Amino acid sequence: MFETNKTYKTCKNDVLKTLLYFDAFQYPLTLEEIVLFSQFSLDEIKENLQQLVTNKTIFKLKQFYAISEKTCQVERREKGNKKAKQILNKAKKVSNFISQFPFVEAVFISGSLSKGYFGEEDDIDYFIVTKPNRVWLSRTLLITYKKIFLLNSKKYFCVNYFMSTNALEIAEKNRFTATEFVTLIPMSGNGVYKDLQNRNPWVLDYFPNYDTNKKSNPIKRKLIKRFSEYLLNGKFGDRLENKFMKITKNHQQKKFEKLNKKDFDIAFKGDKNTSKHHPDNHQKRVINLLNKKIITFNKEHQLTVPIEK
Predict the structure, then answer these.
(1) Which residues are registered as beta bridge partners of 97?
(2) In the 3-class helix/strand/coil scheme, how is 126-160 assigned residue by residue?
(3) Residue 128: alpha-carbon gap to chain centroid
(4) What is the CATH topology of the domain spanning 83-277?
(5) Predicted confidence (pLDDT) at residue 6 exceeds the cutoff of 60
(6) pLDDT score recorded for residue 7
(7) Residue 5, pLDDT above cutoff 70
(8) DSSP letter at 305?
(9) What pLDDT, on the 0 to 100 scale, is given for residue 9?
(10) CB distance 36 to 210 below 8 Å
């Protein structure tokens, strides 16, 4: 029945693709995490996992499920989980600090820390939402602060993705962006997270089980934030916004001129209300690696897990 029931095979493929995706990061998953990144119910997933472990298609190591039987991945994860708990307090303080920059409307933690992991080489990644037509001004102020006061260190201050409140729909709709979306940790913002969800209902097509009720702290607009927004809210601010966007995009195009246009537009997405700076094109690399793993895994186990589009 395991191999002939269509629903069973579909659920199995869903579980395997989830485990293969995180195997790209050498990151085994708990049952609860597999449910989060699945389209199926807890009971269906538990049944599939039991059969897959029995058949030695996957392995259970302590409370984790993995493609590989290597226990070093569990040790690595546990160490990174412990570090993430320690570093989260630092991330909260930095998030509150970022929220007081002019025109910042919401701050989210993304990247590895949002998944409960922090390694020796990791940064704290922040996804920042600004007021309309102030993405590039806010970005430039934050980058300038990082360069001057943090000596350009991004370890605890990696601000690489900005959107404005009137452009909250994510253009790239795939497993990578859906995974990043459902693991976002809202740190501060006045209802922006709910607006972000409303503009991206497609995420539920990938992960209908994710927690949509995460809460964030409201941004208290201190005097310096109110005063700086007042000074930069008119035509002077508009001129700076346009100037900073032009300077930044010209710099990116010159520095990364070897990238083809399609890859450049994804890695450095930039328009009036969006700024993304991912020079290693992490999204493409992860999807490509996932598909390579799926192809190899299918050949090894005579399965038909579909590749990711």
Answers:
(1) none
(2) EEEEECCCCHHHHHHHHHHHHHHHCCCCCCCCEEE
(3) 12
(4) Beta Polymerase; domain 2 (3.30.460)
(5) no
(6) 53
(7) no
(8) P
(9) 62
(10) yes
Q: How many Å apart are CA 28 and CA 53, to the nearest integer?
A: 14
Phi then psi for 120, rounded to 5 degrees? -60, -35
- CA 5 to centroid of chain Cα atoms: 34
Q: Higher pLDDT residue, 8 or 18?
A: 18
Q: What local confidence, expressed as pLDDT, does residue 4 receive?
A: 38
Residue located via tokens 């969800």 = 197
Sequence-ordered list of residues with C-beta below 8 angstroms from that of 228, at least 6 positions apart, any chain: 102
Amino acid letter at 291? N
Q: Are 252 and 271 in contact (CB under 8 A)?
A: no
| pLDDT score for 125 | 96
Euclidean distance between CA atoms 255 and 206, whole angstroms: 35
Contact 139, 248 (CB under 8 A): yes
- Burial degree of 159 (CB within 10 A; 0-12, 13-18, 19+): buried
Nearest partner of 66 among 31, 114, 103, judged by Cα: 31
CATH 3.30.460.10 residue ranges for the chain: 83-277
291 to 38, 55, 175: CA distances (angstroms): 18, 23, 12
d(CA 15, CA 254): 42
Q: Which two tokens stand for residue 108?
A: 């989210």
Q: Which pLDDT belongs to residue 268?
A: 76
For CATH 1.10.10, the residue range(s) in the chain are 6-69+286-301
Digit-coded pLDDT (tens) for 176-232? 999 999 999 999 998 999 999 999 999 999 999 999 999 888 898 999 999 999 999
How many beta carbons lie within 10 A of that of residue 102, not counting itself? 22
Q: Give the three-state DSSP class for 103.
A: coil
What is the residue whose two structure tokens read 């303080």?
Answer: 93
Q: Per CATH, which fold does 6-69+286-301 belong to?
A: Arc Repressor Mutant, subunit A (1.10.10)
Residue at 282: amino acid letter: H
